[in-house]
Design a protein that fits this description.
Number of helices: 4
Radius of gyration: 19 Å
Strand content: 35-45%
CATH class of the largest domain: Mainly Beta
CATH superfamily of the largest domain: Nucleic acid-binding proteins
Number of domains: 2
Shape: globular
Distance between the termini: 35 Å
Helix content: 10-25%
Strand order of the largest sheet: 5-4-3-6-12
């Protein structure tokens, strides 16, 4: 039905306003989305902009799912900051916000922007594999860090790929990852 509605909109050059709380429906049908909170627009943009570049932590949490990690700014780097995560990993994250050294931050990374590896590295988090679920074309891993964080990692599932089991691994950012950085006080 979503595809048919989108097709009709384009075929007849229709402008339509749709109010929904169904994120998947909004992402599928809309050319532009206004995410509202308490009667005010938090962010206005294309579905891809809203998902990939959330303006606030509220928008980030409202659209899609994400892993939220506590961290502290170590130092500015080209276009962003080096962040020391509470779980011990060091990540470099671009940001539109300005931060000072030592400032607490929240790092948000989407499950499909994370990966699991066997080898440790400075930018990887040691994790315990709790559960792996094959959901359609994805394999969703539920893992927990030594700091007690529960994380979701989504990878493309190939035919015949087993769902995996318990064990240890190291969780890091995929090459295409674009985590978002928010001030701790940003709701």
């Amino acid at each position: 039905m979503q595809i048919e509605i989108k097709r009709l909109q384009r075929q007849f050059a229709l402008t339509a306003i749709m109010v929904t709380h169904d994120q998947d429906e909004a992402m599928a049908i809309a050319d532009r989305i206004a995410v509202m909170r308490q009667g005010r627009i938090e962010q206005l943009g294309t579905p891809v902009q809203i998902y990939d570049e959330p303006a606030t932590l509220f928008v980030n949490n409202f659209i899609g799912s994400s892993n939220l990690l506590a961290g502290r700014i170590e130092a500015p780097v080209d276009g962003g900051y080096r962040v020391a995560l509470a779980n011990g990993a060091l990540w470099t994250v671009a940001s539109k916000f300005r931060f000072g050294a030592g400032e607490p931050v929240t790092v948000s990374v989407r499950p499909e922007q994370m990966l699991l590896a066997d080898e440790p590295a400075a930018d990887r988090i040691p994790v315990e594999l709790k559960l792996s679920l094959p959901i359609g074309g994805e394999l969703i891993h539920d893992v927990s860090s030594q700091a007690g964080e529960s994380l979701k990692v989504a990878i493309a599932r190939r035919p015949g790929m087993a769902s995996g089991g318990a064990g240890t691994a190291h969780c890091g950012l995929a090459g295409h990852a674009r985590p978002a950085l928010f001030p701790v006080s940003n709701p």
